């Protein structure tokens, strides 16, 4: 089949590398110089340096051309921009390229910072009435996927056709795809786990031990589940790949950008310095305020997220934020939508 991947960051490049050996795949970014460099070197030196890209992968700097490549009913368009760029790209497809894909999936994780919208709400607002859209998510580091290591992901959509297209595109080689229709649950898991990974990084950076890490992950899962249920997600989704699976990976893996932010905050570095040195998007920083705002609007207790926001934005020292969590009153363990927090 024909596939267009829109966005040549680490994740978009990794997915394109997985797709190209089996499908006629085009990778798009708006920078012609970047596309020319990647085509010449068969490498994304900035985001995935040292990983050779398949010879079959083609590169395109024209959005119209990339969309035309995957315009028929048997094709698929994959949006791999960060959440912050999702709305603008949807508008560009609609207004500039005048070519809305027949089947569209996105892979970004988080809430839109200003509007507190989930990705599917952003897409619905810009491409109203589109019948075949969905999200691809799960525990995945781009470098491992680009290197051909095993990974399991979930595609969620209310459209059976969209799920079939995504399954046909991605389910091969070392990538296993599961399907479902709980778009809200999948997206909430993908957003909240990034915030919780910052918290776990802080705990590890402060050398609080494995007991503390296990407690943060477990109670973080409860926090994710409560918020997700309040927004309409199904409880079982949060114990699957896109909830618990993604949380474990992002909170413990050395390739996790959000965990790295937490580790370096614990060392006393400023957030600005951390993000400048990181050079990649850390979605947990972008969406932490949105998670807290939404939780308060739905009367959901999210103490770990609140502690992360205090460190990120209010100047609270990491160790003081941890002590505040530990001083919370004892309570029954709860996973309900509006139950007690960590």
Description:
- The protein folds into two domains: about 1-180, NAD(P)-binding Rossmann-like Domain (Rossmann fold); about 185-325, N-(1-d-carboxylethyl)-l-norvaline Dehydrogenase, domain 2 (Orthogonal Bundle).
- Helix content is about 50%, strand content about 10%.
- The protein contains 16 helices and eight strands.
- Keywords: Cytoplasm, Lipid biosynthesis, Lipid metabolism, NAD, NADP, Nucleotide-binding, Oxidoreductase, Phospholipid biosynthesis, Phospholipid metabolism.
- It is found in: Cytoplasm.
- It holds the Pfam family NAD_Gly3P_dh_C.
Task: Summarize the topology.
Elements: E1 2-6, H1 10-19, E2 24-28, H2 32-41, H3 45-48, E3 58-60, H4 63-69, E4 76-79, H5 83-96, E5 104-106, H6 119-126, E6 133-137, H7 142-146, E7 151-156, H8 160-170, E8 175-180, H9 183-205, H10 210-230, H11 241-252, H12 257-266, H13 271-278, H14 283-297, H15 303-313, H16 318-326
Parallel strand pairs: 1-2, 1-4, 2-3, 4-5, 5-6, 7-8
Antiparallel strand pairs: 6-7
Pfam families: NAD_Gly3P_dh_C, NAD_Gly3P_dh_N
Organism: Trinickia dinghuensis
Subcellular location: Cytoplasm
- Radius of gyration in whole Å, from Cα? 20 Å
Overall 3D form = globular
Give helix and strand order, one letter per element, not per position: EHEHHEHEHEHEHEHEHHHHHHHH
Number of strands: 8
The proportion of residues in beta strands is 5-15%
State the CATH class of the largest domain: Alpha Beta
Termini Cα gap: 47 Å
Total number of helices: 16
The low-pLDDT segments are none
CATH superfamily of the largest domain: NAD(P)-binding Rossmann-like Domain
Looking at how many chains there are and whether they match, the oligomeric state comes to single chain
How many domains make up the 3D coordinates? 2
For this structure, the CATH topology of the largest domain is: Rossmann fold
What's the overall average pLDDT, rounded?
Answer: 94
> Which range best describes the helical content: under 10%, 10-25%, 25-40%, 40-55%, 55-70% or over 70%?
40-55%
CATH architecture of the largest domain: 3-Layer(aba) Sandwich
What structural class do helix, strand and pairing data support?
alpha/beta
Adjacency order of strands in the biggest sheet:
3-2-1-4-5-6-7-8
Largest sheet: 8 strands, mixed
């Amino acid at each position: 089949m024909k596939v267009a991947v829109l966005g040549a960051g680490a994740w978009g490049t990794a997915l394109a590398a997985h797709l190209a050996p089996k499908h006629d795949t085009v990778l798009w970014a708006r920078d012609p110089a970047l596309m020319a460099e990647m085509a010449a070197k068969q490498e994304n030196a900035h985001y995935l340096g040292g990983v050779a890209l398949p010879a079959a992968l083609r590169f395109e700097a024209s959005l119209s051309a990339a969309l035309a490549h995957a315009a028929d009913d048997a094709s698929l368009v994959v949006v791999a921009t960060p959440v912050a760029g999702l709305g603008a790209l949807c508008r560009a497809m609609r207004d500039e390229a005048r070519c809305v894909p027949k089947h569209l999936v996105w892979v970004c994780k988080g809430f839109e910072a200003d509007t507190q919208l989930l990705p599917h709400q952003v897409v619905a607002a810009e491409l109203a009435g589109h019948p075949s859209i969905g999200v691809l998510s799960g525990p995945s580091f781009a470098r491992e996927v680009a290197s051909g290591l095993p990974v399991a992901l979930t595609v969620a959509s209310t459209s059976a056709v969209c799920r079939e297209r995504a399954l046909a595109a991605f389910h091969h080689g070392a990538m296993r795809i599961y399907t479902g229709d709980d778009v809200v649950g999948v997206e909430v898991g993908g957003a909240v786990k990034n915030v919780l990974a910052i918290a776990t990084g802080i705990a590890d950076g402060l050398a609080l031990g494995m007991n503390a890490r296990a407690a943060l992950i477990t109670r973080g899962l409860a926090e994710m589940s409560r918020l997700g249920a309040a927004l309409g997600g199904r409880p079982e989704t949060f114990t699957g790949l896109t909830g618990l699976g993604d949380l474990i990976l992002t909170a413990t893996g050395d390739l996790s950008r959000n965990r790295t932010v937490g580790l370096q905050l614990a060392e006393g570095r400023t957030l600005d310095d951390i993000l400048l040195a990181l050079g990649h998007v850390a979605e947990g920083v972008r969406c932490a305020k949105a998670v807290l705002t939404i939780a308060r609007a739905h009367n959901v207790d999210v103490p770990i997220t609140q502690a992360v926001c205090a460190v990120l934005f209010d100047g609270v020292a990491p160790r003081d934020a941890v002590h505040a969590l530990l001083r919370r009153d004892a309570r029954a363990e709860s996973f309900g939508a509006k139950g007690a927090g960590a």
